[in-house]
Design a protein that fits this description.
Layout: H1 2-21, H2 26-30, E1 36-37, H3 48-53, E2 62-66, H4 70-74, H5 80-84, E3 89-92, H6 97-100, E4 106-107, E5 110-114, H7 125-141, H8 143-153, E6 157-162, E7 171-174, H9 182-190, E8 200-204, H10 209-220, H11 224-233
Parallel strand pairs: 2-3, 2-5, 6-8
Antiparallel strand pairs: 1-3, 4-5, 7-8
Helix pairs in contact: 8-11
């Protein structure tokens, strides 16, 4: 294991390139890939097979998060719901990872899912019905806040909605499924490429104390300037 770790640190990028250039051997190459994760020490990696072997019994997807560094991704609010459920998330911090993953939609018949794109639903079948009822109640209770923030931000965001990803933080920005994410945007700009404008979705934690304060402000109807400032801050 230690010998392969050393080999991977030297030649890992070359192996990853094979995911694009050697289509006939993609399945074999995928077994050689290594990534850090939310359950590994910094600098230590695991294989996709190791990840699958320790998935939760009802887990159907391989979760991953991209970013510039481990420090950046492991402190992301996007991880909160996954940590709460003891779900492992792969950390993809190598520049080439953004090109590797599209070549690897599944591993061992498990889809790879970016936790920073699209919707994330971690509920079991038993939890879905209960959560759906609570979700409707929360959306109705916070409808005025969501609408007011959407109006305040205008074209800066695609939507303002409640989040299923957050347990502690107040808000997070996420991309649509299949859209260019913030990390890819940074890399494209660094290479001098023209980056198409991509609007993010602002997700709010319905259980955060800030939501109650925002609702009071909205219902009072006299805090338009402050609300806009709060919206920009979020």
């Amino acid at each position: 294991v230690e010998a392969y770790e050393e080999f991977w640190s030297e030649f890992g990028r070359v192996i990853k390139e094979g995911m694009h250039t050697d289509h006939a051997n993609q399945e074999k190459i995928s077994k050689l890939l290594r990534f850090e994760s939310s359950k590994t020490e910094a600098g230590k990696t695991i294989s996709l097979q190791e990840y699958v072997d320790r998935m939760q019994p009802d887990q159907k997807e391989i979760y991953y998060l991209t970013g510039e560094s481990r420090a950046m991704v492991e402190n992301s609010p996007l991880l909160e719901a996954f940590k709460a459920r003891n779900l492992e998330v792969l950390f993809l911090t190598d520049t080439i990872d953004e090109w590797v993953i599209p070549a690897l939609p599944t591993f061992d018949e498990k889809p790879l899912k970016a936790i920073h794109r699209g919707d994330v639903n971690l509920d079991s079948e038993e939890e879905k019905k209960e959560h759906e009822e609570k979700r409707k109640e929360a959306e109705e209770a916070n409808k005025s806040v969501l609408e007011a923030l959407q109006e305040a931000l205008g074209e800066k965001v695609k939507s303002v909605r409640l989040s299923d990803r957050l347990t502690d933080s107040a808000a997070v920005l996420v991309a649509d499924e299949g859209a260019i994410d913030a990390n890819m945007e940074r890399m494209m700009k660094a290479m001098g490429q023209v980056v198409p404008e991509t609007k993010r979705n602002l997700e709010l934690n319905p259980d955060h104390p800030l939501m109650g304060k925002l609702k009071t402000l909205v219902d009072a109807g006299d805090g338009e300037t402050r609300l806009k400032e709060y919206a920009e801050l979020l």
